[in-house]
# Entry
Amino acid sequence: MDRTQKVENFPWKVTPYIVICWILAACGGLMFGYDIGVSGGVTGMDDFLIKFFPKVYERKQHAQENNYCKFDNQYLQLFTSSLYLSALVSSFVASKVCSVKGRKPTILISAVFFLVGTAMSALAPSLWMVIVGRVLMGVGVGFGNEAVPLFLSEIAPVQYRGAVNILFQLLVTVGILIANLVNFATLNLHPIGWRVSLGIAIIPALLLLIGSIIITETPTSLIERNRLDEGREVLKKIRGIDNVEAELMEIKEACDQANLVKHPYRELRKKQSVPPLVIGILMQVFQQLTGINAIMFYAPILFQTVGFQSDGALLSAVIIGLVNVFSTLVSVFGVDKFGRRKLLLQACVQMFVSQLAIGIILILKLTTTNTLPKAPAILVVVLTCMFVMSFAWSWGPLGWLIPSETFPIETRTAGFAFAVSSNMLFTFLVAQAFLSMLCHMRAYIFIFFSAWILIMGLFVVFLLPETKGIPIDAVAERVWKKHPVWKRFMDDEQKHEVVA
# Structure
């Protein structure tokens, strides 16, 4: 029996404790998703605009104001995007903490920063305090998005690694839905509705804080830090059996090789690291260039632009949130059955058609000062749901799963930090630029995103390998060395070199 076959046959059974660990850790996604959903609703609330952005509020009141430009304000966009800029920077710090201290403490730090930032934002008397609060929340997001997907991938049995990792994205969608429901409920809670919406973010942060105390450290992290006996006991606990020596030795072998690498960021410059680094970064960049977060951040504003009133816009956002949650379940149950590539390619077709159709409808029907007729407006909502549906079972969850399972252990936290930071960078750019792009590009912004979706489909066809059912530590042998493009980066030299 060869090494990779042996990995696939490691025994395990489901225990209540491991399920609890999966769910509690995935609350990092709930925290992240709630913020994605809440920010767009808050920026569309009159009380929030009157207090912090009175000029935007004045523009909004003018019936003949340009539909595409009435929300164009850099500071308003900074309210949303500042979180992702700080998350970008903090993800590299989180990478080091993740390696030196472990996944569990990194998740704890994430919850603490998000709690403090949430309290500051919700209670803020001035705009600068709101922004500082969101910067602190961004640190929490950076730490959480670095540690949680790695944690889930490392404690999951290989047969269900995809489904377990996608719990993170599933709770992201649940968080978005809850945020949309909260925004809908607080819209008429004057003048503190926006404070309540922001403040409720404390709940998912508290769940993650409690979870970080209850969950175990991953065996990989313990063994990597030379705590073999603890790693053995944890492995027994999460696998629900005593016979874990084969899997333990597999992890130890990978960790021994990883410990030879003293500078993982320097290791990432070697040509063997190019395939996972390129895939990890591009998966996250393309995830944002679908335009998904432009829709999730600004769905209420977008629907106001096409003619819905504030309550109708928020209700439409709730419908999209429901579609998002239930469609992500398709990925949970299908990713380890159908594979990564099939889900991604199918979604590219559906997203391309949806975005292109939305753009054409708005180009033909929405001028700078009118509102969409009822039938086209409803069709825009339906097409948006179709777009969100396909994203939710593909690029949403797989954008986090694939980078977490393609890096070898010696560069896993460093490489994943680049993936997370790329996500945060492009999330920041989209959040900061979308309302201005909407103002200047008008409906053609949807054509812009659909063009990127076409490029993403070509990327999957030619460059993205299938990783379904392949153990993390066997990816180099079974994926990169056999791929027609990436195999040229993998040579027969000793894979791991001692770096002085």
